[in-house]
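Researcher: I've been going back and forth with a colleague about how Nitroreductase family protein might be arranged in three dimensions. Neither of us has a model we trust, so I'd like an independent prediction. The organism is Paracoccus stylophorae, in case that matters for your notes. Sequence below.
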Amino acid sequence: MPPEQSLRAALAFRDYMRRRHSVRDFSDAPVAREVIEACIEAACTAPSGANQQPWHFVAIADPAMKARIRAAAEEEERDFYAGGGGDAWLAALEPVGTGPDKPHLTVAPWLIVVFAQRYGLRDGVRHKHYYVPESVGIACGMLIAAIHHAGLVTLEHTPNPMKFLNALCGRPENEKPVMILPVGLPAADATVPAAAKVKKPLSETMSVF
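Model: Here is an independent structure prediction for Nitroreductase family protein. You can compare it with whatever you and your colleague have in mind.
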């Protein structure tokens, strides 16, 4: 691109991504499997340590399976909000208005559970993966951007602990669940907390030398 076109593209993408917000109120309107597959394929183009691509994405539309995940997640969340999360963490969450009830896990037409492969298994032989958290984090960011680009919304949901997801999703011991992303359209009355719209200015998030 010529420099002027590059700047226009960068500014346009910045403004477009500024419209993205996490949503907790979902419509149950269906979303085609092909859309979810395309978003995950985009995420899988992410760079990774030694190109080992240490991730696995489980896409779930089955209502019964979503209900089991919600029940298990809310059990962990009740312990967290009852004090397990600690006073400081709970106080930090207050402006966002979260709580132990997670209806989005059953209302949203899709759940995407992201797993990080702590090490690889090839023909039964264990081999090391490099920069796993960083690689999976980049892939998650690209997945969220792809979901937004498809005209959908999502929410980064991280019940703690999440070990129950391995059994529910049939994933092996070498994989660690890191995030649940409900994906769909926003409910007609969906709102975004005012506190969530406050972003740090560039002067606080960037240094130039």
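Researcher: What would you highlight for our discussion?
Model: I'd start with this: The radius of gyration is 18 Å. After that, consider the following. The chain has eight helices and six strands.
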